[in-house]
Amino acid sequence: RTRDLFEQALDGCPSEYAKPVFVAYGQLEETYGLARRALRVYERATRGVANADRLEMYRFYIAKTAELVGVAHTRAVYERGISELGDVGAMQLSAEYAQTELQLGEVDRARALLAYAAQFADPRTDPRVWQQWHDFEVQHGSEDSFKEMLRVKRSVQARATDARHLAEVELSKQPVKSKKPVVDLPTATANPDEVAIDDDDL
User: Fold this and answer.
1) What are phi and psi of 45, to 5 degrees?
2) CA distance 12 to 25
3) Would you say 22 and 45 are in contact if contact means Cβ atoms under 8 Å apart?
4) Phi-psi bin for 24: left (phi > 0), alpha (psi -120 to 50), beta?
5) Distance CA 13, CA 15 (A)
6) φ, ψ for residue 101 (rounded to 5)?
7) Number of Cβ atoms within 10 Å of the Cβ of 136
8) Mean pLDDT across 152-160
9) Burial of 94 (0-12, 13-18, 19+ CB in 10 A)
10) Which of 15, 55, 61, 187 is deepest in the core (most CB within 10 A)?
11) With 60 as the cut, is the pLDDT of residue 146 above it?
12) What's the CA gap between 59 and 132, in Å, rounded?
């Protein structure tokens, strides 16, 4: 059976070569199987591909979830991706999640996600999220929410400066092997509106 062939192909397949196999497997399920089977394949893919491909695979999984079972169901996928990916991936996925929430009319949730994403971005070196948040507040915010955005921006910039200074100190002490400073960032809050995907819904 074709499913068995895909399973055999994935068994022991190096992660850097697994992405096209997962995608083809999922497309097979979309065409000849069930939506829930295809989504399970794409979910497996987010953990089975190389680290360099995980963000792109999450984006693909999110798009397929929206297409097959509706945009509201993407929330659980976004939140799992944010919790599993590194800082850069979490920042990008949080900003994209904010856009989805805005499309659903959830302005407050979109703002909270942009605030979370911004914690990962030094405004001087990675201004994209900050520009997104700025434009969001201009269109949907108030004077108070705009001022809060600026306050957070100053705080993150100051923290990034401190982290950079600590890194320079460490480099001066250990010119051969330096330790990257860790900046504690807030974790994503639980989503009370998360919609579980049950087999009966599909």
Assistant:
1) -65, -35
2) 16
3) yes
4) alpha
5) 6
6) -65, -35
7) 20
8) 86
9) buried
10) 61
11) yes
12) 19
How many C-beta atoms lie closer than 10 Å to residue 10's C-beta?
A: 17
Report the alpha-carbon distance of residue 183 to residue 119 in Å, rounded: 10
Which residue type is seen at 50? A
- Report which residue type is found at 138: V
Cα(194)–Cα(46) distance, rounded to whole angstroms? 20
Q: CB of 10 within 8 A of CB of 22?
A: yes
How is residue 184 written in tokens? Answer: 């504690």
- What's the token pair of residue 112? 């909270």
Among 118, 50, 171, residue whose Cα is nearest residue 110: 118
What's the CA gap between 21 and 77, in Å, rounded? 21
Contact 137, 110 (CB under 8 A): no
Q: Which two tokens stand for residue 132?
A: 């997104």
Residue-wise pLDDT tens digits, 161-173: 765 655 555 555 5
Mean model confidence pLDDT for the chain? 84
């089977």: which residue's tokens? 37
Q: Whose structure tokens read 């999984």? A: 61
Q: Does residue 101 contact residue 113 with C-beta atoms inside 8 Å? A: yes
Whether residue 76 is predicted with pLDDT greater than 60 in this model: the reply is: yes
Provide mean pLDDT across the span 17-22.
94
Q: Greater confidence, 202 or 7?
A: 7
Nearest Cα residue to 163 out of 178, 181, 185, 175: 181
User: Which residue type sits at 7?
Assistant: E
